[in-house]
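Form P-L/3: holo structure prediction, ligand heme C.
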Amino acid sequence: MAAQSFVYSGERKPGPRRHHTGSAPLRDMIRRPALSLLLLVSAAGIALLSGCGPSLGPSKPASQLTPQEQSGHAIYERDCAGCHYANHTGDLHGPSLFGVFRKKYLPSGAPANDQRAIPVILRGRNMMPGFGNQLDDQQLQDLLAYLHTL
Ligand code: HEC
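OUTPUT (holo model):
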């Protein structure tokens, strides 16, 4: 026993003493899950703020809209903006349409494509009124073109 402790102290390097006590691994065990949780919460927060996960970037800027998309934007402002946010997430009277066609699914769970969105726009859905009487085919196409920029 005396020999072992002699060897041990012989290997000790000079300088500040490092205390490898039993509490160090315990501290790590507590700290690491706390860190992971923090990261998880931040990631969830970012996902919530952007509304659609980290992969969905911003909508096309208004200044870059084509004439057709601008026409659709005007129709959106007139007919849709009162119930749907376009540039950020969150429900108004209806679900946000931010990134509506860049996501895989419409809020209802239907695939996000024109084929599924057109009947909703023309005939309405639950609390949403239909706009079939107010939009001619060109206006519908313009509106869809704009919705694709969101
Ligand atoms: C009076 C409010 C109101 C107006 C105006 C309105 N919506 Fe909606 N919209 C809703 C509501 C409420 C829903 C959710 C319907 C549901 O699934 O119960 C909805 C759902 C939608 C959906 C998702 C459909 C799905 O399958 O999830 C789209 C796309 C949509 N609206 C587009 C539009 C467009 C484009 C306009 C303008 C032409 C418009 N809405 C005008 C209230 C409105």
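COMMENT: Residues 79-80, 82-84, 93-95, 97, 100, 106-108, 110, 117, 120-121, 125-129, 131, 143 surround heme C (CB under 6 Å).
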